[in-house]
Design goal:
The structure holds two protein chains of two kinds. Chain A is mainly α. Chain A folds into two domains: about 100 residues, 3-Layer(aba) Sandwich (D-Maltodextrin-Binding Protein, domain 2); about 230 residues, no CATH class. Chain A is about 70% helix and about 5% strand. Chain A has 16 helices and four strands. Chain A has a four-stranded mixed sheet with strand order 2-1-3-4, with helices on both faces. In chain A, helix 3 links the parallel strand 1 and strand 2. In chain A, helix 9 packs antiparallel against helix 11. By secondary structure, chain B is an alpha/beta fold. Chain B has two domains: about 220 residues, 3-Layer(aba) Sandwich (Rossmann fold); about 60 residues, no CATH class. In chain B, strand 11 and strand 12 form a beta hairpin. In chain B, helix 2 packs across helix 3 and helix 2 packs parallel to helix 4. Chain B is elongated, with a radius of gyration of 24 Å. Classes of the chains: A mainly alpha, B alpha/beta. Chains A and B meet through helix 1 and helix 8 of A and helix 2 of B.
Chain lengths: ~400, ~300
């Protein structure tokens, strides 16, 4: 056994070095940087276009200065309660031009300098609102008109409050249930993303060995199970290097942000922050090894790069299915679906990491990791047998075995 | 006391689909010997070697290798050069040798230092730090061969080791095989070139169409065919042909025929009495090549007849 582990380590070492000590690895390592740059450039462009459109959006009130002051004061108070980015369009007051105010309001929709989404006129006696596409602006104007009318009727001067309310900030010492579930889902998504990006590489690794004929050397010297394990561990080492590099950068970036310490205290998984972090790493390893061993086994059967490319689609679907199952489980903790996702070996790491955020018990995780390790070894063993049978053509065929069994029974 | 063989197999059978690649092969390789497996392409040599090493399992039959029926458990005591040469192109020569040693349990550092020595002995010391992809095909093949012996195995299995090597490297390889035998290793190699087998092998097996046609020493193999007489008469009269054995054929003004079971004495006396005389006479032991062609030729005829029957 220890000899086989030593042999697996030799193969893992070779694969790790052969992958890391290449210029291509640098490209691989920095690939997220390119993604970030493209996302930033694209996002900035899209935001600029969206902002330029938003800047032109207007809600208009046709009212004289006396009445308009009430509306503007109400707008100032209510607008302040909207989170950044989702506030209604900017409010603009226009003096009544005399004549029919409805005509003036309708004419505003044809102005080329601004995009009018809703117009309020006739305040305070007969207020009316005309709006374009989407009623959200009209709803907001209605709220302003109602608030302004109440202030005016109650004799409250514009901008003043009726009662002073004392406010006190309360610092929570524990995360909310929703916060823990969000953290669990975020961890699940991160794990899925990492395995999607990294575990898929294992699919082509045996094709390389078949191409350069080294598989015969390996198969002669080492049990195929050790070859599979070595390949898997070697590539997992590469993945771990990738995660460690970007993980360190991410932690440094977060710590450099002002107020990050307080924000981090909000990340309060039920099992504790450090155990949760350790579990996330363990489940990443398990997820990678489980899915990687499946991909390795499937890829080992491919005889050309074209076949491997064709395999990448079902492999991605398989990963998506596991993610979907685990996500559904995370949304319904304690349900039978959640239990199934936690027990099904290939979704278990994802489902269990989410569980760690909301369940304080440690033993289910220890049991789950042992269960997943068992399945890693089962998958590797089955993959090696499949390779031996399907590619190396070792031993009698299944039909020959059945025939021999049948003959034995008859005899 | 009998010394158990380094490797033995009984009634090995292997089918690939409906094709029987190996059909009941028996082999016994004595310890410390050089053993050759001869056969034409597609005879089943490689499949036999792969079964013996445990790379694939036979459909039926038994095998024992270095005292175990599970070849895998002895893998650290075995060196193997496969027919299809394979190395990582990005690896340096000495690293490739050390890697192959490490797979067989040799520590990396020890593997590297042995690799340097082996490369130097093989005249490839200058290429120790060259990547495999920079080496010629023959050099790369030699590097792989050194990788298969770097851990000083008890049993060395070489599948067609001479193919792809130039005459100089073939000579080097022959010397290397003899040196490994002198070290105490058992060497088993396959080839379809008779010269190497004849010069190197203590014993050999001839396989054709998946069947063992012969197993024994080179001398015994040659003894399976009668000696040939090359006779040149002084008087080449018409009556001479009637005196000679029925298989005599004319060749370069003389006759070639198998020495009769009864020996040459009576025939020579008759030739002298009849006045044909003896201008030249030589007796030659058939070569391994003759034995091989005889065995493989028969097999080929059988196969052709069988195919003809199937077609009919």
């Amino acid at each position: 056994m220890s000899n086989h582990l030593h042999q697996a380590a030799v193969i893992a070492r070779r694969d790790f070095i052969a992958t890391v000590a290449t210029p291509a690895f640098l490209m691989f390592l920095l690939a997220p940087l390119f993604m970030l740059i493209f996302a930033m450039v694209g996002g900035t462009g899209a935001r600029m276009i969206a902002d330029s459109g938003d800047d032109a959006q207007r809600l208009v009130v046709i009212a004289d200065a006396d009445y308009g002051t009430y509306i503007e004061a109400a707008d100032e108070r209510i607008r302040a309660t909207f989170p950044l980015g989702i506030a209604p369009a900017e409010l603009e007051r226009r003096e009544p031009q005399g004549g029919d105010p409805e005509q003036q309001a309708r004419a505003l929709f044809t102005e080329s300098s601004i995009d009018v989404s809703a117009v309020l006129f006739g305040f305070p006696d007969t207020p009316r609102i005309i709006y374009g596409s989407g009623a959200r602006g009209a709803d907001y104007l209605a709220l302003l008109a109602d608030t302004a009318a109440r202030d005016r009727q109650g004799g409250t001067p514009p901008g003043e409050t009726v009662v002073e309310i004392e406010r006190e900030s309360y610092a929570r010492t524990s995360a909310t249930i929703g916060g823990q579930q969000s953290l669990g889902f975020a961890a699940l998504f991160l794990l899925f993303l990492l395995t999607l990006l990294l575990a898929g590489q294992t699919v082509s690794v045996l094709a390389e060995e078949k191409g350069n004929k080294v598989i015969e050397i390996l198969a002669a010297a080492v049990p195929l199970e050790a070859v599979f394990l070595g390949k898997l561990v070697g590539l997992f080492g590469v993945a771990l290097l990738f995660v460690a590099f970007w993980g360190t950068l991410a932690v440094l970036a977060v710590m450099a942000l002002p107020g990050s310490g307080a924000a981090l205290t909000m990340l309060d998984p039920a099992i504790g922050f450090v155990p949760f972090l350790a579990l996330a790493i363990a489940y990443f390893a398990m997820g990678y090894l489980l899915l990687g061993s499946v991909f390795l086994a499937v890829g080992g059967q491919a005889s050309s790069m074209r076949e491997i490319q064709m395999l990448s689609l079902p492999i991605t679907f398989f990963q998506m299915a596991m993610f979907g199952l685990a996500s559904a489980a995370a949304a319904r903790p304690g349900s039978s679906l959640a239990l199934f996702a936690e027990l099904f070996p290939f979704s278990s790491p994802f489902a269990m990491v989410a569980k760690g955020a909301s369940d304080p018990r440690l033993w289910p995780h220890l049991a789950a990791i042992a269960w997943q390790l068992l399945w890693v070894s089962i998958t590797i063993s089955l993959g090696a047998r499949w390779f031996r049978k399907g590619v190396l053509k070792s031993g009698p065929s299944v039909f020959a075995r059945i025939g021999a069994l049948f003959r034995g029974k008859l005899a | 006391m009998t010394v158990e063989p380094a490797l033995s197999a009984t009634a090995l059978v292997k089918n690939f689909g409906s094709k029987r690649a190996v059909n009941g092969v028996d082999i016994s390789v004595p310890r410390g010997s050089i053993y050759g497996i001869l056969g034409p392409n597609g005879a089943g040599k490689t499949t036999t070697l792969r079964m013996l090493l445990g790379i694939i399992d036979p459909d039926s039959g038994d095998r024992e290798l270095l005292g175990t029926t599970r070849p895998r458990t002895a893998s650290n005591r075995i060196g193997y050069l496969p027919e299809e040469r394979g190395l990582y192109p990005g690896m340096k020569a000495r690293e490739a040798i050390a890697f192959m040693g490490a797979l067989r349990g040799l520590p990396w550092a020890e593997g590297r230092s042995r690799a340097d020595l082996l490369l130097a002995d093989a005249g490839l010391g200058h290429a120790a730090n060259d990547k495999i992809k920079k080496l010629s095909k023959g050099m790369a093949q030699f590097v792989q061969l050194l990788g298969s012996i770097v851990h000083r195995p008890e049993l060395i299995v070489l599948d067609e080791p001479f193919s792809g090597l130039d005459p100089v490297n073939q000579e080097r390889l022959e010397a290397l095989i003899l040196a490994e035998r002198d070290r105490g290793a058992t060497i088993l190699f396959s080839t379809h070139v008779m010269g190497h087998a004849e010069r190197l092998c203590d014993r050999l097996a001839i396989i054709a169409s998946g069947r063992l046609r012969y197993e024994g020493s080179v001398g015994e193999a040659r003894a399976t065919m009668p000696m040939q007489a090359h006779y040149t008469p002084r008087d080449n009269g018409e009556a001479l042909a009637a005196l000679l054995p029925a298989d005599a054929v004319r060749e370069n003004g003389g006759y070639v025929f198998n020495v009769p079971d009864s020996g040459m004495e009576a025939l020579l006396a008759m030739l002298l009495e009849s006045g044909h005389g003896i201008a030249g006479l030589s007796l030659e032991r058939p070569s391994l090549h003759d034995v091989f062609v005889k065995l493989v030729g028969e097999e080929t005829v059988e196969r052709m007849e069988s195919e003809a029957e199937e077609a009919a």
